[in-house]
Write a structure and sequence with these properties.
alpha+beta; 5-stranded antiparallel beta sheet; rod-shaped
Length: about 475
């Protein structure tokens, strides 16, 4: 039962995706229209063939009837005579379904004539039920001696002088006609079915080829997203070329916005650098408690400015194109630097064999890793472990990876973990710092729509789990 439910759920998911697919819609519409058209064509052709066959059948019966009438005569004594030869061997085969007969209507004629194939009586409706026409002919369907459905063409003819009237009947096997029509219909359905399958296959190929440029655009956009290209390139059909041009214009506009933001950030940093330097120098010259207070506040201002400048850069880069960072390379470079600074701390790394690419700027990733490593090394008793895990994502989900940094220090109590992420909040005043490291990390992670969690490590200290978007 669980497997059945899983398969049913997958089938439902596939149906939902198929309904949203442009290719599926076009192929389904063209296929349904082709099937309806072929069914209509088959019905029309079968109907026309039936009508033509029925007219041909009636013509054959009429010809046989006239031949029969011309082959039979009556003697002066009123005896019917003649040897009709209708040119069809079925009239001589017993119970073949093809019969003829000449029967007197009154006592002026005698000795009825019948074909060798007619071995029993044939049910004849009365003239009131099936009347004769102005030519003294009538046609009706009845059952033959062998159970065949037969069509009878009957005429009343006066032979000679007086009231010598005889009824001439020619009977044809309707079952043969229906069998022939059925064989034709089956062949027609087979040929039209093969033609329909071929036509649907050609439609599928033509539609997929026609929609192929959309797949090329998707691939080109993926290259731009992965940083392998800067714009949509390549010849596109006339219907898609405007879309490609507008997309390239949007990419270029986005790039100009980023450059303008970077310029403004740089100008702000440059404009504040000199005033802060002057304030810091004046505070140092002033000395004393007031000088140290002013110098501390200037340093805090510098930290705040650095933080908001980094955050502005992250906001400008959020969701932009062609910003990618190799996680393994950046981490190895940072770990090499921290190993030189903290020789007493053993730093272990567990990096995946396959490359992990962060969907963001290298400076932001290094800022996140640097602050977390600095805290881990500062509080660790002697061991720090760094791990990167690539997380699996579905087709419609954002791909992510986890950066895990653990230490064997005292850790952070669960009730104080949330406070540690607040700006300027220091849980231990005995260690140097500004209390901005984890807050900066939390802000950068939030800008990239990631998550950060502070947990208890298996090493005994703090375990920080940061989830970030990846390519």
């Amino acid at each position: 039962m669980p497997e059945t439910r899983t398969r049913w759920r997958r089938f439902c998911d596939w149906c939902v995706k198929a309904r949203r697919s442009l290719s599926f819609r076009v192929i389904a519409f063209s296929s349904i229209w082709a099937i309806i058209a072929l069914v209509v064509i088959a019905t029309v052709i079968s109907t026309l063939f039936r009508q033509v066959s029925q007219r041909g059948f009636d013509t054959v019966l009429s010809a046989h009837l006239f031949n029969l009438i011309g082959s039979v005569s009556a003697s002066d004594e009123g005896v019917l005579s003649g040897v009709p030869n209708l040119g069809d061997l079925r009239f001589s085969q017993p119970d073949s379904g093809w019969y003829w007969s000449v029967e007197p209507v009154n006592e002026t004629l005698s000795r009825p004539l019948r074909s060798a194939s007619l071995t029993g009586p044939v049910a004849v409706p009365p003239a009131d039920a099936v009347p004769f026409d102005e030519s003294y002919q009538r046609s009706y369907i009845t059952t033959g001696p062998a159970g065949h459905e037969i069509q009878v063409l009957e005429a009343e003819i006066v032979l000679g002088e007086g009231d010598r009237i005889a009824r001439f009947r020619v009977m044809g096997n309707v079952s043969e006609l229906e069998a022939e029509i059925s064989r034709f219909s089956r062949r027609l359905m087979s040929y039209l079915g093969l033609f329909g399958l071929g036509m649907i296959g050609i439609n599928v190929v033509a539609i997929l080829l026609a929609l192929g440029p959309l797949g090329n655009i998707r691939g080109a956009l993926a290259k731009i997203r992965e940083g392998q290209a800067e714009k949509l390139a390549g010849p596109f059909p006339a219907e898609i070329e405007p879309l490609a041009q507008e997309t390239n214009a949007l990419i270029e506009s986005n790039r100009r916005i980023i450059e303008r933001s970077r310029t403004q950030v740089g100008n702000l940093a440059h404009s504040l650098k000199t005033p802060l330097a002057v304030v810091t120098n004046e505070a140092r010259q002033l000395g004393g408690d007031r000088g140290r207070l002013i110098e501390g506040q200037a340093a805090a201002m510098q930290s705040q400015i650095d933080h908001y400048l980094k955050r502005a850069r992250a906001v400008a880069q959020q969701g932009t194109l062609a910003q990618r960072t190799q996680v393994n390379e950046a981490l190895i470079r940072l770990l090499r630097a921290f190993r030189k600074i903290s020789r007493d701390t053993r730093i272990e790394e567990h990096l995946p064999d396959e490359p992990v690419v962060f969907a963001g700027e290298r400076e932001d990733f290094e800022e996140i890793c640097g602050n977390l490593l600095e805290n881990a090394v500062k509080w660790a008793d002697g061991r720090v472990m760094v791990q990167v895990v690539q997380l699996a994502g579905g087709d419609d989900e954002m791909h992510q990876f986890s950066l895990v940094i653990e230490d064997d220090g005292p850790g952070i109590p669960e009730d104080q973990a949330k406070h540690a992420l607040k700006r300027g909040r220091r849980l231990d005043e005995t260690k140097p710092g500004t209390g901005l490291g984890l807050a900066i990390v939390a802000d950068l992670v939030e800008e990239y729509k990631g998550t950060i969690a502070l947990e208890r490590s298996g090493l005994g200290g703090l375990r920080v789990v940061v989830t970030l978007p990846s390519v």
